[in-house]
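REVIEWER CHECKLIST
Item 1: Sequence provided? yes
Item 2: Single chain? yes
Item 3: Sequence as submitted:
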Amino acid sequence: MMYQRILVTGANGLLGQALAQHLSASAAYDVLATGKDPEPRFTDLSCGYIRMDVCDRDAVSRVFVDFTPSIVINCAAMTGVDRCETERSACWRINAESVERLAKECHAIGARLIQVSTDFIFDGQAGPYSESARPNPVNFYGKAKLAGENAAREAGIGKWAIVRTNVVYGMGRNLPRHNFFSWVRQRLSQGQPVSAFTDQVRTPTYAYDLAGGIERVVRFGKRGIYNISGGDLVSMYTFAFEIATALGMPTSLVVPTESRSVNLVAPRPGTTGFINLKAQTELGYRPRAICSALEHMARHAPEVYA
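Item 4: Structure as written out by the authors:
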């Protein structure tokens, strides 16, 4: 049997963990998870792990020589939008330059690169977006991620795919940072109000579904750009309200707020989100509705609802 040797970067994050879990469950894949931590944050997955900082050229080269992946899925990113605005060098190094490095390594050995991207490459004036929409980022994070998309193409003709997604949520082991779900849950469990924007509209994406969609990109050998997100177009306020309802916590603590009333460091696009028709047609991708995703979490991570 010929195995696909898959290298996953940023594997200690929410999506990275979901991908490592999803891929390592299949006998068709030999998975090596990598991250900046010396040890994996997860302990229950049947895949290898090695420390690798995507910004460390020598470390990346060593892993490529030792593991010789056939596919690289790049989940490593600096995603704090305000931090990216103030720490531009670090943002560019992680979100753009490191992608170029991975693409060149892939090109050298004929590996495929799957780059995970974001709705923040758009200005939010005409969402939800299809794959053919013209990018126009309004903040530095979006500009760096768009540069990362362009860099991914250096893997070679037919050797790259870009997966665009937004507001990835779910549960993982010892995650390094909150996602919107875990942030809302923490605040509500402490009896603190959750101010959520009514004028920022997205298609929130369940990490488990996203991992499944990316696996389909791998399995079917797809190339090019694919939108893989949730199917519900909702404001962040509505999303927070649904989370509170699913958790059985007071919805009165969810406070509607407009982004213009808050002094944000980096501007955010208004209405983004994605049209998933291409992924549905070509990959058979079927994202859960938000309420179904939250129910799925309750079944597979019951401690979330304890």
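Item 5: Key structural point noted by reviewer: The first strand starts at residue 4 and ends at 9.
Item 6: Recommendation: ____
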